[in-house]
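Aim 2 progress update. The chain analyzed this quarter is reproduced below.
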Amino acid sequence: MGKSPFVKVMEAEMIPALGCTEPVLYALGGAVARKHAPGEIKSIEIIGSGLVTIGVQSVGIPNTGGKTGGYLSTVLGVLAGDADLDMEVLNKVTPKDVEDAEALIAKLQSEGSLKIDMVTPAPSIYLKTVLKTDKHTAIVSMWSEHNGVKYIEVDGEVIMGNKEEEENAFKAELEGHNVDSSFLSIESIYDFCDTADISELTMAKEAIKLTKVICKDGLDNKFGLQTGRIIQENIDKGIIADDEIAHILKWTVAGLDARMGGSDVPAMSNTGSGNQGMVCSMPPIACGDFLKKDEEAVLRAVAFSNLVNIYLDYKSNEYAHLSPMCYCAGVAPAAGVSGVAYLHGHNKEQISDMVRTTLGNFAGAICDGAKPSCAYRAHTGIYGALMAMLMAEKGIASTDVEGIVNKTVEGTIDNIYKLQKNCMSDTDEFVCDVKKRQGTLC
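Predicted structure tokens:
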């Protein structure tokens, strides 16, 4: 008997990643290009989609002490990245590597030989890196996934992919395209997680392991806005109650503090996002800890929440892996708290009600790039989702007379997809223009 489609989709979309996936994308492009272009570095040009270009600007790069930017991510990939480590490409970076990268950046910028810019329209995830040395020119194009190296050209010779595939990817952005979500629904995911053999939940087990470590890193150390630590400090002062909701919030957002602040600890990503991975996994983990649930119950709940997030993201069509809307606040909390509701014994209808109410709450909140305040946004979204869960317990939920909420989860997320497609498609250009005007594009 072959693998269940639920297992296959978890294996495809739950990937360990060191650092925010945007710096990883830039670093991986640089590392792959360097692999094919040895010699003295003469110039580097980086061209990305709007969401990728703004996404790399303000988030901490692993092993750099919280430094940021597409230039540094790329140059670190070129000088010290290990392309064979895939999304952990920056795992071996040292302080000396950071110094060398900054020195090279300064040199290339003084010569006008280091450029970053945006291309639109483009696949939501798209990055082209052009590396020229005194001996070679390498062009690496990536799209669809943050580790999706699809095209490599060295000295005019194509050694991977072809230009037609890249052109088709751009056409698909204009025409729209679908990922297979036919087998996914709240009901089907619920049934799978209730009946699956534990051996089928390996990715959820790995997610629990990685998520616990990075969230503890965020509570133990001063990363980003320190949102999780501030919750804990105010619990200690008696200002915030030491209850289940606070326990879930502090542990979850601490992981985002760490990841956005440049933690050296990897996270389990979900649909290309480490933040979404943590927002999916830590709420049921923390809930299970607070309620003293057994290991198997937590494992099933974490699988449930991660699969719900994949389902919701897939229903967003081409935005499945990167969106103009803030998924940390607007979508992933619905998935993460689905796992909490699962542990509380809520039925499929109650979970669906919670998801619909949550999706309607933050629809349209823009993504303006990965940054420390993502943790605060996630806090707001998760708290709202937990409130929606408590409402659903009483049979209360948003109805289809309220804004973009539909009678079904599928209809609601379809409305959100259309909102993004029809009303938010220029968001990335606007944010990029703001960065340029402010002189902060890096």
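The chain has 18 helices and eight strands. The longest strand covers residues 41-48. These observations will guide the mutagenesis experiments scheduled for the next reporting period.
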